[in-house]
Amino acid sequence: MNTTLTTLLIAGTAAIATADTLYLQDFENPGVGYTANEFSDGGEDFFGNSGSISFAGAVNYGGVDGNYFAGMDIDSEGADLPLHLTTTAIDISNTNNLQFAIDLAEDDDGSSQDWDALDYVRFEYEIDGNGWVEIFTVENDGSTYNTAPRVNGTIVTDTFSTFSADLSGLSGIEMVIRAVWSLDSGDEDLAIDNILLSGDRIAVVPLPSAAFAGLGLLGAMGAYRRLRA
């Protein structure tokens, strides 16, 4: 972990910014760190963690690393759309430069991808209960049907790849992230893994006054770095 001394205050404190993983959901522990109403018919109608539900072996994703979360034709078992996967609250206090990333894959069904203009999986955040805001949406290309899903024009393939968003202008105390799913037909599916929120955590650290007496700002900064080395 790289630590950067960003500010030295007259009161004898230093503000230290460290690049931190604030939240990582890799789905290796089903049901831990998120909530979702999971189900499966054992075939091609499912919504859940691959470690806790079963589904048709014909549904395949490349680049799989352990468990993941996936959904296909999720209204067929009587669910009302949309469905949600919601993270636990994430502490973002005293943090800046927030960054979001997630791995996505979609089972390739050749020319019958079937995503139409009404199908989507949208990723959103909420800070301190102030309402949900879109991060980005997986959707088709705007045509009627039979197109592969994409994020801002980039196609989601059947091999997991990472999609990211810059949230650096955001601040608050707690953030919650959710995925909003609306997939209502066969061949409409999405798998997700490694939901990541990272940022630079700011910590104010008291400095030993005797060690910095008479050094001046630049000298104190150098001495403080040597003390931490």
Whole-number mean pLDDT: 83
Number of helices, counting only DSSP H or I runs of 4 residues or more: 2
Structural class, by secondary structure, is: mainly beta
Remind me, CATH topology?
A: Jelly Rolls
Cα-based radius of gyration, to the nearest Å: 22 Å
Major pleated sheet: 8 strands, antiparallel
Give the tally of β-strands.
16
Q: What would the principal axes of the Cα set say about the shape?
A: elongated
In terms of per-residue confidence, which ranges show pLDDT below 50 for 5 or more consecutive residues? Answer: 1-10, 223-229
Give the termini separation.
13 Å
Instruction: Give the C-level CATH assignment.
Output: Mainly Beta
Total discrete domains: 1
Strand content: over 45%
Query: How helical, in percent, are the residues?
Result: under 10%
Name the helix and strand elements from N-terminus to C-terminus, one letter apiece. Answer: EEEEEEEEEEEEEEEEHH
CATH superfamily: Galactose-binding domain-like
